[in-house]
Predict the structure.
Amino acid sequence: MKVLEATRINQAVQVRRVRAADIPHVIALDTRVTRIAKAEYWNDIFSRYGRQRSRERFFLIAESRPNRSAPEFLGFTIGEIRAWEFGSAPCGWVFALSVEPKMRLHGIGSALLKAISGEFRKAGVGKMRTMVARDGDLPLLFFRSEGMIAGPYIQLEKDID
Amino acid sequence: MRLQVSTRLAIFAVLELTAREGRQLSVAEIGEKYGVSSHHLAKVMHVLGRAGLVRSIRGAGGGYQFVGNARRTTLLDVARLFEDLSSGEQGTGSGDATHEEQTLSGILNEIDNTARATLGSITIATMRKLVDRRSARDDQHLKTGVTRRSNSQRL
């Protein structure tokens, strides 16, 4: 597996590509946060986003500084470059970002977003998007604080009869 | 969407007070910038004080100070102190007797829900950052000789 050069955001956190050994931590964190265990989903995501098409798919892990004996898993983000969906020119989509609850408000989410936006930029796209539930207060506040604003698309849905 | 004058004033006042940590300003100082009377602003500050967002400091050099959590207080939190932004129930208003009226109410609720979610997603700290960024950009434009667009927005 190709491992990116570690991106040091500050002295405490580094962001790197995911490894197979990280997936149990991803599953555990997601289960604690969402209260829904979905190991099969995360294993599938790892095989698709951690092992394939690494120039346009980014599954990144934040951990404590590497010179400590046992790096601590702090959070993760996943995104990819999508082209011409809904008529949109190629742009980066962030579809998952999660930080260990007890480690929030320490800049870890910002470090992850900065790292993935750097990957998008290196891949040649200048726009990044995500989607947040209207009542998802924490993610909304986070992405807003990172400068994200409402985009030009409106999400629509309907119940299927 | 339009916000009431008191709501806009409250947001501006809180932004002024959070421009620097521990900043104290009198109602006259804030009122002068936004062209409103101290009397009107004092009423707004009283409501903010009751909500625990500001406190008044008496004596010479006194004024108001922000004492809330700027990273957790949203524009919606401030707006709700001054106006009713609760979500309406679709088609249950007394004027919604017909299916046409109920359907229109549903569409307007959709708009209101989006507006509420937007106000609820922006904290005072985030808006402060947006203001500072805009201010820095304007300063940069001034330095590089670009004509500054006049701010015609008024309360």
User: Anything to note?
Assistant: Chain B touches chain A through 15 residues (CB under 8 Å). Chain B has one domain: 5-143. Chain B has a mean pLDDT of 87.
